[in-house]
Amino acid sequence: MKKILVTGGTVFVSRYIAEYYVAKGCDVYVLNRNSREQSKGVNLIQADRFHLGELLRDYRFDVVIDTAYSAEGVNGLLDALGYYEDYIFISSSAVYPEYETQPFKEESELTENKYWGKYGTDKIEAEKAVLRREPSAYILRPPYLYGQMNNVYREAFVFDCALRNRYFYLPKNGEMKLQFFHLEDLCKFIDVLLMKKPQYHIFNVGNQNPVSVRQWVEMCYSVVGKVAKNRNVYDNLDQRKYFCFYDYEYYLDVSKQHELMPTEKDLYEGLKEAFTWYKDNSDKVNKKPYIEFIDHTF
Fold it and tell me: Which CATH number is correct for 155-179+209-248+265-297, 2.60.40.150, 3.20.20.70, 3.30.70.1060, 3.90.25.10?
């Protein structure tokens, strides 16, 4: 039975990871300030990760899965840890600049992306800290993550529009393509890394094929049991006022991931799971006033 430390463990990515490993029978510890409800089956280490001191020194972990947002967060954790075997860092595709040749490869330039700004540059610095301190660590760079526990108002926004039988306002012709990755696949790939210990240590992860935002919206409506009726927006409006993604099309080269894990969850099936969770957990999503803007503007 593996002993696993997950930093965070109360929201979206880290919470899903913690519950995934609890379900696999692992001894899961979560490190957070205990300001939110904890998942069943986890062991809480209550602390601020920036003020750990000697708190973790006597623990022994088989795996540390870290979602730090800064180099300071990485260094603070590594300074505090005692023994651990493997370290997995969840980074982001926001580390790639928008002007770089696509699909982004793991070897592509890392610098500021104008859409992601400080979030992306902080992740770059966090990666550097990981590689400097723990060169055997694995770094994962996902695109848009989705699935159960998603507290970001993306698929949930479309579900709300479908539940209310609303027209959906698509930017331009709706052909902007996006790439997604289900959290279960993220966890399964971590399992593959821990089992196979590949020579590469940095991986883009994601579904092999991007989809257009039109296709994605139509799938979201379909899992609710509705048919999407779209209206296209060609006005010179800030897209983020009425839509849940930036006006920015990008995708990753995930060939290294698929060499190790050739299958992935079907996007439609993943959205069905996300909707099943959302029906009973809509209060856990950080909703934005897209619908109010639409009603006021169009």
Answer: 3.90.25.10
